[in-house]
Design brief:
The protein has helices at about 1-10, 35, 40-50, 50-60, 70-75, 75-90, 100-110, 145-160, 165-180, 180-195, 200-215, 220-230, 240-250, 255-265, 275-285, 290-300, 300-305, 310-315, and strands at about 110-120, 130-140. The relative contact order is 0.05. The chain is elongated and about 80 Å long. A hairpin with a 7-residue loop joins β1 (about 110-120) and β2 (about 130-140). Helix content is about 60%, strand content about 5%. The chain is mainly alpha-helical. Mean pLDDT is about 80; it is low at about 1-30 and about 120-130.
């Protein structure tokens, strides 16, 4: 045993390691590696190598680490965003905590929404006067975080009907302050379908679909084109409908490709052309669109001329 120890001592490196050969006499008084690190560096290191559930458990190990998870989240905005989502969804080793998640989301958003009341005349018999919620936005940081605004909107909409207007206000803030096109499209869908106990409002739906379309949202383009085609929430306009269907189709929207083909076949907003219609039907059929496949069967005599191989595709 003694020889073994002597052998180990003789082979020890000339430069003393950081902690492998620490003096046993001073072991308890020597600070550990973790405790010797600056708090900021420790937090960043732990965030890089531990998930939120592990950080929560570490926070219970010693009193000085009790705020470890909160401090780790505060190191970067992306860390706070990650924690807020984990708490909202109960993932990454954490239990669901909507209250704490909402607090983080409000902080991240960098915006305060203030509610006011305004009187709106209502012509229904049972309601001579009704109060409608109005909201104003106040930016309280140099870097408002749009995804947090959108997430707040979705959370308030899903919580209860009493928070519907506030949820809508947060979605509108996400678009108006952060140009979130998905939020604009979602607003159009909410107003169109009368979701969250709202009365359907096709005019507002069309307004928000148009905002999304102008910004380049592919589904917003297709929905606004349909509004123009049918005259829902706006005057019917075949030319404008075709313009937006074409833009969505060129970006890969399958149903829009079918609609462009239909416009050529029926001469809506464009000179009639079965050949051009077949080309667009074929593009959509290649992606499995049933309506386009049926159209190619109907126009088979022309399709087999302008689209080589269409017979094989149709299994004929």
């Amino acid at each position: 045993m003694t020889n073994a120890n002597n052998c180990n001592e003789n082979k020890a490196p000339s430069v003393k390691p950081l902690y492998f050969l620490a003096d046993n006499k001073n072991k308890e008084s020597t600070p550990g590696l973790l405790s010797s690190l600056p708090a900021e560096l420790l937090a960043i290191s732990l965030v890089d190598y531990a998930d939120w559930g592990e950080l929560a458990r570490l926070a219970c190990v010693k009193k000085s680490w009790s705020n470890l998870m909160k401090e780790a989240a505060a190191t970067t905005g992306s860390s706070e965003w990650s924690l807020a989502q984990a708490l909202m969804e109960g993932t990454n080793g954490l239990q669901v905590n909507h209250t704490l998640s909402l607090q983080l989301l409000h902080k991240l958003s960098g915006v305060v929404i203030q509610r006011s009341k305004k009187n709106v005349n209502v012509e229904e018999e049972d309601n001579e006067n009704e109060e409608e919620d109005a909201f104003t936005y106040k930016i309280i940081t140099d870097n408002p975080f749009t995804p947090a605004m959108k997430k707040l909107g979705e959370c308030y909409l899903q919580q209860s009907n009493s928070n519907t207007e506030e949820g809508l206000a947060w979605l509108k803030a996400a678009y108006e302050l952060g140009n979130d096109l998905e939020a604009a499209y979602e607003l159009g869908s909410i107003y169109e379908g009368g979701k969250y106990n709202l009365a359907p409002d096709i005019y507002k739906a069309t307004e928000w679909y148009k905002k999304a379309a102008i910004g380049g949202h592919i589904n917003g383009m297709a929905e606004y084109a349909l509004c123009c085609e049918l005259g829902c929430g706006c005057d019917p306009n075949d030319e404008e409908a075709l313009e937006w269907y074409m833009k969505a189709a060129q970006m890969g929207h399958v149903t829009a490709k079918f609609s462009v083909g239909e416009a050529f076949e029926e001469a809506r907003g464009v000179p009639q052309s079965d050949s051009e219609a077949c080309l667009w039907y074929y593009k959509a059929a290649m992606e499995g669109d049933d309506g386009s496949i049926a159209a190619l069967r109907r126009l088979h005599d022309i399709a087999r001329i302008v689209v080589p191989g269409v017979t094989n595709m149709l299994g004929e």
